[in-house]
Amino acid sequence: MRPGAAADITDQRGRIVAVATPAQRVVFLPMPAPSTYMAIDRSAAHVAGMNPASASAMRSGILGRIFPAFDRIPTGITRGAGVIPNVEAVMALHPDAVLQWASFGDEPIAMLDRAGLTVLGLRYGGQDEVAGAILMMGKLAGQEARAAEIVDRQRERRETLAAALAGVGDADKPRVLHLSRASDSFAVAGRESYLDVVITTAGGRNAAAEIGGSRTVTLEQVLTWNPDVILLGNFDTAMPADLYGDPRLQSLAAVKARRVYKVPLGGYRWDPPSHESALTWTWLAGLLHPDRIGIDLRADMRAWYEFLYGHALAEAEIDGILHARQNGGSAGYARFVTAR
User: Fold this and answer.
1) Where is the Fe/B12 periplasmic-binding domain (predicted)?
2) Which CATH class is domain 164-336?
């Protein structure tokens, strides 16, 4: 599809940016964004460059099999890890638009603005911002109706879960700690993080709610919080067996009850916000409140993957996404795993 006339797109900095749509060449600095764009666009053809961490998730997860052309997309667009752009490398890709975080300080996005590139700023704080980002990408791709359907389906799932969890008092909401790092130190997600949205949507309480954002904490702090449930993020190598075998952690309620879980990795990592977030909420709600959540997660995943990617998930693919082997020794996980 050839680009049409310039469309005015309001980015999440509040700036009005003129972009020829549908864009043919888009570069993505934010890690979750290219997989979302591929789902909206139903193709990897218009992703001209992406963060190397995005490619790593695609290679480790299922998206690389759904869109095998991802492996030819340039990734040398950052300076080191993170979102500091290699401006010269980005310019060499001749993008129609560049997406960059608007919430990681001014300079990472200002560098691109100063180079005269067409830049759209993203914010992924609460769910409203995530929905806004999806709608913005839909307009950029010339797929506004499809993006709106993704947002509507996510909203409907939040409403379904809220209804199922209505009446659950605070005392019955497990205290959940998300560890984005646990292999060599402890990094947690506090309030004002997207994981706080995930935990509360699924009927839990964030054990790290007293701190803001995401930060590194001490072992002593983790022991003091004593969470009922621990989630292990996908930016780290730690697995439930590592925590179950760590002598320093044996007093934790989550370890004693074997309620430590590796967060799934699907079309993108399920811990950050994405087009698959409804599945993240459903997965966690099923672990926290199995008596209230009647959704068959495996059937739900098949339906979502057909909608998002036109892909029919095999049983082994579902097990891989859910880290069935790594989570198999954790409490309550049998309900998600293929019968053997």
Assistant:
1) 25-292
2) alpha beta
